[in-house]
Amino acid sequence: MRLDLTGRPRKLLGLIQPFHWRLGLVGIPGIAIVLLVGRLITDPLHAAIAAGAAFSVGFGLSRDLFGRRWGAMAAAMIGMAVAGALGTLAGAWFPALAIISAGLAALCAVFALSDEDLWWVALQVVIAFMMAGYFPGGPDAAAERALAVTVGGAVEIATVATIAALLPTPLRRLPLAAGRRDFQRSLAIAHAMRAALAVLLSLSIASGIGLAFDYWAPITALIVLKPGLHDTRARGWSRLLGTAGGCLLATLWAGGFAVGHLGLTIGAIIAIAFTYSVQKASYEIFSAAVTMTVVFLVSLGQGGAVDNAEHRLLATIIGGLAALLVSAPLPHRQPKTIEPDRLGGQS
């Protein structure tokens, strides 16, 4: 009797397939530059904001917009800068922040059923708005955040475009999911309402219990929510498993041999490269990679990596439960032409 020792490694390797390593290598330099400059000018908070923006914009490398190669990246950068400024101002009054977040989530949900590239840009805008709302301020703070987002996004676009031009073979966009040719108005309205309610509910709960970085909960709710109840449940479990794994790895890294700024920076760079590479692979693996990246970037700007990992996990549970709660009463069948998507963005 012979034991097959190759089956399990092959299965594990399959979880990270397809592995787009070129996207990881091309997307990293711009973010590394932003982190290095932030370290040199001793401004970790704005450097983390800029690096987070660069991370989100970098996902646009695998997309285009209206046929323009760098259109998705540019649109995301501009939209995130505007949303960041408005979110900073709206954050001073929670009802305004919650209502606007819910409205933006509804619009994003409609795009999810009609155009995947527009959905991705809209998702970055919603995320940027809710993140900024957690750090309220006046016009000066709003302008500073918008500037940091613009600088981070511009550096990422410039480095990506330069490196892509030097590659011996073209760096093409990744394939989209199946075309959404059977767009249904009734489905779009129902999905938009569920998205708005899920974001409103999860943000209210997370803020009400005083959860640090409460915006993680509504972001999770928006990403987990799918037109069908079964799909929402499956996506929620996948994200929870991935987030738990990412939190564990981030905690082991930050609480182990690399507790300083340099260790967090190295961890962030490795996690970002891996995240870009597995954005079309297993959703659990992708969620784990995104979680590690976010925990590292937030910790570089705010500190407390271990606590941040715990807050991220709790926010994921709140957001996932909120998505399931609003989906259960009125589940709606998913059109046959819609296939599972990928986040492709900071969450």
How is the topology of this model organized?
Blueprint lengths: L6 H8 L6 H20 L3 H15 L12 H20 L3 H19 L3 H18 L5 H28 L18 H24 L7 H9 L4 H27 L5 H17 L5 H20 L2 H23 L20
Main location: membrane
InterPro entries: Memb_transporter_dom
Keywords: Membrane, Transmembrane, Transmembrane helix
Helix content: over 70%
- Proportion of residues in β-strands: under 5%
State the end-to-end distance. Answer: 48 Å
Radius of gyration computed on alpha carbons:
19 Å
Please tell me what the overall shape is.
globular
Describe this structure in words.
The chain is mainly α and 347 residues long. The protein has two domains: 22-174, no CATH class; 182-334, no CATH class. It is 71% helix and 0% strand. The protein has helices at residues 7-14, 21-40, 44-58, 71-90, 94-112, 116-133, 139-166, 185-208, 216-224, 229-255, 261-277, 283-302, 305-327. α2 (21-40) packs antiparallel against α3 (44-58). The longest helix is centred in the middle third of the chain and has 28 residues, at 139-166. It is globular, with a radius of gyration of 19 Å.
Please provide a brief summary of the model.
This protein is mainly α and 347 residues long. The chain is built from 13 helices and no strands. The longest helix has 28 residues.
What labels would you give this structure?
347 residues, mainly alpha, 71% helix, globular
